[in-house]
Amino acid sequence: MEPKIIQPPKRCGCANPSEKCEELARTIRPGKVDPDAVLVFDVRREADYAASNETIPGALWKNPDKIDAWIGAVPRTLDVVIYCVRGGAVSNAVVDRLHAAGVKARYIEGGLEAYKAAGGKVARK
C-alpha cells in the first residue's frame, strides 16, 4: 500500500492546496499597489508606526495586536492590501486572520520599504 501524501495547509481558503494559490495570491508586488483602487491598511506594530513619519496615501493604521477589535468591521466585498515594515511575520499573521474571516486580503511583498524602493508614493502622517 502506498503511503498517503499529506497536503500542506491551505493558506488562502481556496481548493488549491499549494502555497502559491492561483485564485488568491497572498502577496502583491510593491509596484502594483493602487491605493485609489483598494482598501489599504498599515499594520505596522504600534512602536514602528509611531517611529515613522511616512505612510501610503489613504492607508488606515490598524494595530495588529488588537485585530480582534477591528476585524469585524472590515468589508468582505472589497480587496484589502496590508503592509508592515518589511512584509514579514506581522503581514502574514494579519492576512491569515483576515482570510479566516472571509476577507480578500493580500500584503505588499517587502512591506513599506519595498513599496518605497519601487517608487511608490508616500505621504507624511
TrEMBL record:
Which Pfam families does the annotation name? Rhodanese (PF00581)
Rhodanese domain: residues covered: 34-124
Q: Which SMART domains match?
A: RHOD (SM00450)
Q: Which InterPro entries match?
A: Rhodanese-like_dom, Rhodanese-like_dom_sf
Gene3D superfamilies registered for this protein in UniProt: Rhodanese-like domain
Protein name per the record = Rhodanese-like protein
